[in-house]
Write a structure and sequence with these properties.
The complex is a heterodimer of chains A (about 110) and B (about 110). In chain A, about 0% of the residues lie in helices and about 50% in strands. By secondary structure, chain A is mainly beta. In chain A, the strands form two sheets. In chain A, strands 2, 4, 5, 6, 9, 10 and 11 form a seven-stranded mixed sheet that branches. Chain A is globular. The N and C termini of chain A lie far apart (about 35 Å). Chain B is an all-beta fold and about 110 residues long. Chain B is built from no helices and eleven strands. In chain B, the strands form two sheets. In chain B, strands 2, 4, 5, 9, 10 and 11 form a six-stranded mixed sheet that branches. In chain B, β9 and β10 form a beta hairpin. The chains are: A mainly beta (about 110), B mainly beta (about 110). The interface between A and B is medium-sized, with 27 and 27 residues.
């Protein structure tokens, strides 16, 4: 199993451009998450999904949209990128919401100029 | 502000010694805690977890202690090895919640030869 994969690994955008980050998991997990990590900080939750077709806001949702059209995929979109969105983005998945670890992908490093 | 925090941003230990990384949390409703290890350029990797109905849990070379009275969590790593060099995050989860984890800022563990 590949676990959680993310594409792309790196991306540079200009202010105002849009892009979509793709997260895929092959563990048949119901729950998927998008986090951002800024330098010297822990991860902060952007959006999450408790199943196919559902999404919910996390701690820092502004400026981002998500979609979960297929159980194995969770997409994170930036409609109009801003320099404040320069960060490393991590996707995670878990099988249950309760006492279960979240499995993380390798991250996408995004720079907005 | 963050409900999970760490006492020290950097911890330097000699190879072979034991390491203790501390974490404080403020939300009494949290009932599940996880320690993650993050190596440079990689996503967080699960180390060990503990539920709030326990005060100690052991894994391979690692022990997590939970003191609910003072809302304190610690990670002990026995016989520290060079491969243990990383940033360690504690994370908490609210009871019954399907949403994501709340992370602390992290402690950078440096292993000296």
């Amino acid at each position: 199993n590949a676990g959680v994969t993310q594409t792309p690994k790196f991306r540079v955008l200009k202010t105002g451009q849009s892009m979509t980050l793709l997260c895929a998991q092959d563990m048949n997990h119901e729950y998927m998450y998008w986090y951002r990590q800024d330098p010297g900080m822990g991860l902060r939750l952007i959006h999450y999904s408790v199943g196919e077709g559902t999404t919910a806001k996390g701690e820092v949702p502004d400026g981002y949209n998500v979609s979960r059209l297929k159980k194995q995929n969770f997409l994170l979109g930036l409609e109009s990128a801003a320099p404040s969105q320069t960060s490393v983005y991590f996707c995670a998945s878990s099988g249950e919401p309760g006492y279960n670890e979240q499995f993380f992908g390798p991250g996408t490093r995004l720079t907005v100029l | 502000g963050e409900s999970v925090g760490l006492h020290l941003p950097t911890l330097s230990v000699q190879e072979g010694d034991n390491s203790i990384i501390n974490c404080a949390y403020s939300n009494s409703a949290s009932d599940y805690f996880i320690w993650y290890k993050q190596e440079s350029g990689k996503g967080p990797q699960f180390i060990i977890d503990i539920r709030s109905n326990m005060d100690k849990r052991q894994g391979q070379r690692v022990t997590v202690l939970l003191n609910k009275t003072v809302k304190h969590l610690s990670l002990q790593i026995a016989a520290t090895q060079p491969g243990d060099s990383a940033v360690y995050f504690c994370a908490e989860k609210l009871q019954g919640g399907a949403d994501g984890l709340t992370f602390g800022k992290g402690t950078h563990l440096i292993i000296q030869p």
